[in-house]
Amino acid sequence: MAKTAAALHILVKTEKLAQEIMAKLEKGSSFDHLAKRYSTCPSARNGGDLGEFKEGVMVGPFNKAVFSCPLLQPFGPVKTRFGYHIIKVLYRR
């Protein structure tokens, strides 16, 4: 049976901006607020919420990060063909 996960993400065009957002998160900024402000993904309006998805559905580097990074902590930046992602995994099953 395929594993599933639920995650939030912030997608930006540059690694520099992704690093700046990670620094803001480390200082306690809200993931929801930063996703709405910076993310270029349509999920931004929902605070970056991608909902639940099965392993293998997302692009390779993103999928690998979601199914291996620590839970409930911002992780990244992860580079894909879409740009740079900061990922926060809510749970894995």
What would you note in describing this structure?
By secondary structure, the protein is α+β, with helices and mostly antiparallel strands. The protein is built from 3 helices and 4 strands; from the N terminus they run E-H-H-E-H-E-E. The chain has helices at residues 15-26, 31-38, 60-66; strands at residues 4-12, 49-54, 75-80, 83-92. The protein has a 4-stranded antiparallel beta sheet, sandwiched between helices. GO terms for molecular function: peptidyl-prolyl cis-trans isomerase activity. Keywords: Cytoplasm, Isomerase, Rotamase. PPIases accelerate the folding of proteins. It prefers amino acid residues with hydrophobic side chains like leucine and phenylalanine in the P1 position of the peptides substrates. It is found in: Cytoplasm. Its main location: cytoplasm.
In helices, the fraction of residues equals 25-40%
Approximately how much beta-strand content do the residues carry? 25-35%
Number of strands: 4
Separation of the first and last Cα atoms: 10 Å
Average predicted local confidence, pLDDT: 97
